[in-house]
Amino acid sequence: MEYEVVIGLEVHVQVRTKSKIFTSVGVGFGQDPNTLTDPVVLGFPGALPVINREAVEKSVKVGMLLESTIPEITKWDRKNYFYPDSPKNYQISQFDQPICEGGKVEIELPGPSRNIMGEHMWVELTRAHLEEDVGKLNHFDSDSLVDYNRAGTPLLEIVTEPVLHTPDEAWAYLNALRNLMIYGDISDCDMEKGQMRCDANISIRPVGQKELGVKVEIKNMNSISGVRNGLAYEIQRQIQTAKAGGAIHQETRGWDAAKNVSYHMRFKEESHDYRYFPDPDLMPVRIDDAWRERVEGTIPERPFDRQRRYYEDYDLPFTVTSVLIPDPELCAFFEEAAEASGEAQQSANWIVNNLLGELGNAGLTLADSKVTPAHIAELVGLIKEGAISKNIAKEQIFGDMFENGNMPAAIVEAKGLKQSNDTGELEPVCQEVIDANPGPVAEIQGGNDKAINFLKGQVMKATRGKANPSLVDQVLKELIDKKG
Amino acid sequence: MSDKGSIDIDYVANLARIELTDEERERFSSQLGGILEYFDQLNQVDVSGVEPMAHAFQVENVLRDDAAVEGFDPETAVKHAAAKRNNMVQVPKVVEG
Predict the structure, then answer these.
(1) Does B21 reside within a domain?
(2) Given CB atoms, is A111 within the 8 Å cutoff of chain B?
(3) Do A18 and B66 make contact, defined as CB atoms within 8 angstroms?
(4) Min CA distance, A237 vs chain B (Å)?
(5) Burial of A95 (0-12, 13-18, 19+ CB in 10 A)
(6) Given an 8 Å threshold on Cβ–Cβ distance, is A42 in contact with B15?
(7) Same domain, yes or no, for A315 and A395?
(8) Closest Cβ opposite residue A56 in set B59, B63, B93
(9) Which residues of B touch A21 (CB under 8 A)?
(10) Could you give the CA distance from residue A37 to residue A135 in angstroms, rounded to a whole number?
């Protein structure tokens, strides 16, 4: 029997704010345990929550990026459960009036190869709601220790409809969502720091069956590729179980990335009855037109829209755009260089091939770069006007520029690298090379055009790369013809 | 919990992760049952002409600006914990359940 896989994802994204969602103590990662706490975070009696405007505003922005409906009124509810990560014995979340309803995300599936753009599709969303993150349990041999630093960090849970069918689609969705969050300045979505976390609901059903199969939830997939691997494993496990005549149980399973297996955590019967009710400590929030318009004004161009613009305006190839697009700062850097030089493709090539390579080798980020868009533009300009060859730029200028931040024209000047465009200077050098290499010259005269490359190489060597290669070609040909 | 004023006390105790003595089961059943009865009473009020509301006071947008302040020092944070170690709250080894 053939099976169809149905996947829905619940993604938690920490919304970047300075303070917690319901109180003024700061947020952070990696601080000493329980230093980011106060009476509200720890749920001390009498402590009252007050909503952080920025958390609401950024969530509205997320809703707009996801093309959700932002309701006029949104409110918060208590989700009741008893577990040490939640000192109040409830989590403040949203039940029936979430901040974002519906929505959709454009995704790009992996292409047939890395050089070819994959198919695009849209993933439909159910909702996104704004809640407080919970504390973190650290497990030891004989006890568990709770650190509440993370508790109260604004957390947006973004839920898809059960519309995904393959691990690749889930992978593509997470990448697209992360790019949107980065573009919107919502979160860096660093999964290692828990800024983005993903749970998946997976079921299989015989092809053609309408009802969904028994749903299994997978947790603890701590990277985007972890989600892809975890889903692939779980799909195989379910199909093999079904084919062997076994039953798939409604359960929660954890993903063990080291062993590459999922393991049973609990059955659904053991799961919670959350008994939601409106939080009496919090008043509803009305998002009026003026507020909406203000947030609307901060919505950036979306990543795929920017990519399409790069194709249309700059004629950049997919491979180059796929390096630039995920990083909005890199895109801004490129756009500035392209604007200043008027040479988008050349600028992009220098940035993607040379600058990123050097930064990678040096273990630096773009923010550390001494090379600015003005450096790239000037370098591209010098090559375009024939002042230097690409080789000189690569071998003798770029490294200097990268190390010391010197402008390319100044480096050319200081090192005397200006390309020789003077035929008068080139002729004697070319003549010398011709005289010293009768063999290759004879080959050229015999009709082997390629042999000229050897002579060109000799001239470039003699001029330490400063000669204009096309001019060398021309002078050599003229001299050999004359010799004829 | 469908019967008027009756509550499945074992179910609620299980959700709250607490064990009850027979005497407590009896007492809490009656107390919580009383609360449910009160809600049954509220449910009888005709609210067909009343807009649904999330709060008794029609106050909206109680918001604060996003400015961070210092929190507790960790010793204070765990001062009232029944058990603590390394400035963290110590609990029996738990696996999410």
Answers:
(1) yes
(2) no
(3) yes
(4) 23
(5) middle
(6) no
(7) yes
(8) B63
(9) none
(10) 10
CA A90 to chain CA centroid, nearest Å: 34
Out of A359, A388, A415, a domain closes at A415
In a domain, B89, yes or no: no
CA atoms within 13 A on the CB side of A30: 3
- How many CB pairs below 8 A link A and B? 139
Q: Do B69 and A24 touch (CB under 8 A)?
A: yes
pLDDT under 70: residue ranges of chain A: 268-272, 420, 484
- Residue B37 in any domain: the answer is yes
CATH number at residue B17: 1.10.20
Full domain range(s) for residue A373: 303-415
Nearest Cβ partner of B71 from A26, A138, A139? A26
Q: Which of B15, B55, B72 sits opposite A273 (nearest CB)?
A: B15
Q: Test B71 with A36 for CB contact under 8 angstroms.
A: yes
Chain segment A148-166, per-residue pLDDT in tens: 999 999 999 999 999 999 9
Contacts 24+ apart (CB under 8 A), A182-186: A182/A326, A182/A327, A182/A328, A183/A65, A183/A300, A183/A301, A183/A302, A183/A303, A183/A328, A184/A58, A184/A61, A184/A62, A184/A65, A184/A299, A184/A300, A185/A16, A186/A13, A186/A15, A186/A16, A186/A58, A186/A61, A186/A62, A186/A65, A186/A156
| pLDDT tens track for A415-441 | 887 776 777 778 888 888 999 999 899
Q: Confirm whether A298 is domain-assigned.
A: no
Complex ipTM value = 0.88
Instruction: Give the separation between CA A419 and CA A425, rounded to whole angstroms.
Output: 11
* CB contact B13 to A (< 8 Å): no
Whether residue A199 is found in the same domain as residue A51: yes
Give the whole-angstrom CA distance, residue A463 versus residue B42: 96
Q: Count CA within 13 A, CB hemisphere, residue A179.
A: 24
Q: Is A67 left (phi over 0), alpha (psi -120 to 50) or beta?
A: left
Residue of A37, A162, A76, A172 whose CA lies nearest to A118: A172
Cβ of A35 and B59 within 8 Å?
Answer: no
